[in-house]
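Let's sit down with a protein and look at its sequence and fold side by side. We need material for that, and I hope you will provide a protein of your own picking. Once you have written the record down, we can walk along the chain together.

***
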Amino acid sequence: MAVHLVTNPLHLLLQSFDGVSLSTNLSYLVSMEDKLSSSFQATSGNEQMASFQIRQYQDKDYDVVREVYSTGFSEHLNAVCVQALKRTWVHFTVVIFILATIALSGCLLTTLLATVLLLLGAREVVRYLFNQGVQLGLREDLLDIKASYMKEGQVSCFWVAESKGNIIGTVAILPCCTQVGAWELKRISVRTEFRGLGIAKALCQTALDFVLCHDVQNVVLYTSMLQTVPQIGILQN
């Protein structure tokens, strides 16, 4: 059984993501000395403890799950803008724009203002694309979570991580619509204040254990350059 980490094609629209492929044996992922259970204890770098449990989605979770997804997705906006500014083609475009503006206006102040407006406009375009991405998710599988992930007879499920009665993370898995015979990890999100505590790892492990029990041979995770490093760590740890 293999887990594959691949780039989400939608993110390529932003031209600020690179694809990384990870293939690993799922039997290694689940052959841990201490078998994961429905509740976990996680420790952060400063030795603070966070107790949480993972359970299946319930109807009462609907609004909070959608809010966790929307917030987590939108948090990548600034990081995407920073990554885009590091791109060679972006540098080249800005330089060409500056030179053209100087040639046309002959004024450095005008050029400076025009460049600032260009960058602000580009950021708003990225914000618009992010908002469209959020709305797409809310209109698709998250519109009816039970119908999408918990349909009787379908090997799929949606889980939430809960701490002190509050939902702090989510994960889901279902048959992949783009790769026949594969299942897709989806909606991996953890609230900012609870990151770094092993919650995402525990959520992913729960999903992988679930499909392993159903003899699933391939799992894919669509991700981006911004998410690649932590998510590779989740899968390999």
